[in-house]
């Protein structure tokens, strides 16, 4: 479900708009809607780090992965600004302006925090559980941040938007199922009907030379 939903999102993703300067990205990053998103992310991260992490961080996989995903959505936006700056600078348009250095500081801070809590999640929980949940949360929040910052849904048809929302629901459902079934034992039907040999019988079947009789 997670993979299928992600494929649908990619198929209906809007085309990227050309960006001519870092200042253009800065203007997008300082618009009210995105500032509200950034403020919400910071508040949620502080709540997760200082309240939920000490209490249930080692028992609930969503705490550490949530911190990584929230911070990661901001780092992706900043990395895009840095990439645009390097590309335009190489082309001869100097973009080493204060806004570029600010984005660089944001990237460094977010990546360090992201890696720290991702390592904690991997040390605490099974990789098979952490990886898909982190992937889904990180991708979903990054898409949300991109939609808010770049207003990518403004030029999309209603059908494409509905398809993306349905795909998001599919991805979210897959994540919930992964989280709910992570501690389930295998059904007895998969174990077969054979019962293990009792220690006494096993001892009788085993001779002194290490061979079964």
TrEMBL record:
InterPro entries: Mg_trans_NIPA
Membrane-spanning segments: 32-53, 59-79, 100-117, 129-150, 162-181
Subcellular location: Cell membrane; Early endosome; Membrane
UniProt membrane topology term: Multi-pass membrane protein
Recorded GO CC terms: early endosome; plasma membrane
Protein keywords: Cell membrane, Endosome, Ion transport, Magnesium, Membrane, Transmembrane, Transmembrane helix, Transport
Predominant location: membrane
UniProt GO MF annotations: magnesium ion transmembrane transporter activity
The family this protein is said to belong to: Belongs to the NIPA (TC 2.A.7) family.
Subunit structure: Homodimer.
Chain's role: Acts as a Mg(2+) transporter. Can also transport other divalent cations such as Fe(2+), Sr(2+), Ba(2+), Mn(2+) and Co(2+) but to a much less extent than Mg(2+).
Protein name per its UniProtKB record: Probable magnesium transporter
Species the sequence originates in: Sesamum latifolium
């Amino acid at each position: 479900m997670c993979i299928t939903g992600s494929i649908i999102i990619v198929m209906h993703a809007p085309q990227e708009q050309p960006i001519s300067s870092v200042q253009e990205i800065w203007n997008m990053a300082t618009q009210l809607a995105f500032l509200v998103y950034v403020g919400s992310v910071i508040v949620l991260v502080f709540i997760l780090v200082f309240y939920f992490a000490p209490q249930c961080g080692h028992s609930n996989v969503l705490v550490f992965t949530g911190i990584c995903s929230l911070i990661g959505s901001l780092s992706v936006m900043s990395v895009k600004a840095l990439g645009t700056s390097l590309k335009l600078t190489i082309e001869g348009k100097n973009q080493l302006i204060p806004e570029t250095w600010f984005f660089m500081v944001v990237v460094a801070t977010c990546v360090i925090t992201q890696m720290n809590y991702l390592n904690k999640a991997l040390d605490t929980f099974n990789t098979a559980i952490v990886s898909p949940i982190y992937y889904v949360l990180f991708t979903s929040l990054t898409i949300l941040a991109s939609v808010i910052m770049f207003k990518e849904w403004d030029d999309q048809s209603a059908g494409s938007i509905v398809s993306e929302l349905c795909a998001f629901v599919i991805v979210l459902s897959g994540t919930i199922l992964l989280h709910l079934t992570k501690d389930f034992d295998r059904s007895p039907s998969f174990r077969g009907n054979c019962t293990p040999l009792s220690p006494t019988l096993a001892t009788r079947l085993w001779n002194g030379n290490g061979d079964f009789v």
